[in-house]
């Protein structure tokens, strides 16, 4: 159900995406600054966002979780996205978050991730999970460490770029990537 509130924090609420929400997803993922540390660092096309919405809706059906839109509670303004995913059907659940640059530096990422972790544990029993991050993205390292993640190993992706794996829970969860 689109707009279903999944969790709330002091300042944010996370809602499911609906079929008509590709534009919301695109608002975050087309921003060059927001995408600087995501994947290859390039903004995502509108067509790719349409595919992401399709995958997200399939994840809701298959796992009852996926990516969620983050809205500021006081006025409903879009802050970014967060969620639990299994890219390429990897075994380990992976936490993701991406905020619009105008919302950086306000503690929203930490707040959203803490809410997501509580939701994952309380609703789905997920306590062992990973997060992947660009080794140069120190702000994200800080968020993950504040939320109880431990720095793990670095892997080289298919595109030749390094990715640092953080984990929460048992160290072996990294092996599910």
Describe this structure in words.
It is a single chain. With 177 residues, the chain is α+β, with helices and mostly antiparallel strands. It has a single domain (5-176), classed as Aminopeptidase (3-Layer(aba) Sandwich), CATH 3.40.630. Helices cover 29% and strands 27% of the residues. The strands form two sheets. The chain has a five-stranded antiparallel beta sheet with strand order 1-2-3-4-5, sandwiched between helices. Strands 6-8-7 form a three-stranded antiparallel beta sheet, with helices on one face. Helix 1 (22-29) crosses helix 2.
Write a brief caption for the model.
This protein is α+β, with helices and mostly antiparallel strands and 177 residues long. The protein is built from 4 helices and 8 strands, in the order ββααβββαβαββ.
CATH superfamily: Gcn5-related N-acetyltransferase (GNAT)
Per DSSP, the total helix count is 4
Strand-residue fraction?
Answer: 25-35%
Mean pLDDT: 90
Task: Give the SSE order as H and E letters.
Answer: EEHHEEEHEHEE
The description of the largest β-sheet is:
5 strands, antiparallel
CATH class division? Alpha Beta
CATH topology: Aminopeptidase
- Structure classification: alpha+beta
Question: So what's the overall shape?
Answer: globular
Rounded to the nearest angstrom, the distance between the terminal CA atoms is: 29 Å
Helix content range of the residues, please? 25-40%
Low-confidence stretches: none
CATH architecture: 3-Layer(aba) Sandwich
Tell me the strand order in the biggest sheet.
1-2-3-4-5
According to DSSP, the number of beta strands is 8
